[in-house]
Design goal:
The chain is mainly alpha-helical. It has a domain of about 120 residues: Arc Repressor Mutant, subunit A (Orthogonal Bundle), CATH 1.10.10. It is about 50% helix and about 10% strand. The protein starts with 5 loop residues before the first helix and ends in a 25-residue tail after the last helix. InterPro entries: ArsR-like_HTH, WH-like_DNA-bd_sf, WH_DNA-bd_sf. It comes from Neobacillus rhizosphaerae. This is Transcriptional regulator.
């Protein structure tokens, strides 16, 4: 079993939810507590501390508040991968599969929380999941990723507002086995 790497720290279900809320915004622990009301306060604070120690999130401000200092958190750089390619490439096949399973478990947790609401309307809420096979040359794939990145970038800059609802969008790209093997 590998030591807890940045990858492991990030892919914990609670920490992944904290990171998702900190994308393109800065929040205090109190604000995170309100957004993540299903997580016990002590547990939430432990996870925030773990993310700070791993340098996944950082303190961007300290606000005096009734005799204490309230810390404001943010991710380092929303335009930069949180896990570097060097670290990813060092992992074994089993470690990659373990990370993928945790990623899928995080998605399942998000979907389970959605389904456990009192009233759901999949159509109105825009719930969907699909799989498509794309046949693309390396150049076409690079262009596709460039276009997709532009679309993601445009909407990830949106700030929370009363008329906006947070939606989880996950992308998994798996190429077929290389014919050169």
């Amino acid at each position: 079993m590998m030591n807890e790497t940045t990858v492991e720290v990030i892919l914990h279900p609670v920490r992944m939810r904290i990171i998702q809320y900190l994308i393109n915004q800065q929040l205090t622990a109190q604000q995170l507590k309100e957004l993540l009301a299903d997580i016990p306060q002590a547990s939430l604070y432990r996870h925030i501390k773990k993310l700070v120690e791993a340098e996944v999130i950082h303190i961007v401000d300290e606000i005096p508040n009734r005799g204490t200092i309230e810390k404001v958190y943010s991710i380092h750089n929303p335009n930069k991968d949180l896990i570097g390619p060097e670290e990813i490439n060092k992992l074994s096949k089993d470690e990659h599969m373990g990370l993928f399973i945790k990623f899928m478990a995080n998605l399942m947790g998000e979907y389970d929380r959605y389904l456990n609401q009192e009233i759901i309307d999949l159509r109105r809420d825009g719930v969907s999941f699909r799989q498509a096979s794309l046949y693309l040359s390396d150049e076409e794939f690079a262009e596709f990723i460039k276009d997709l990145t532009a679309v993601y970038t445009k909407v990830t800059l949106n700030k929370p507002q009363r008329d906006r609802r947070r939606r989880t969008l996950a992308t998994i790209i798996i190429p077929e086995q290389s014919k050169e093997q």
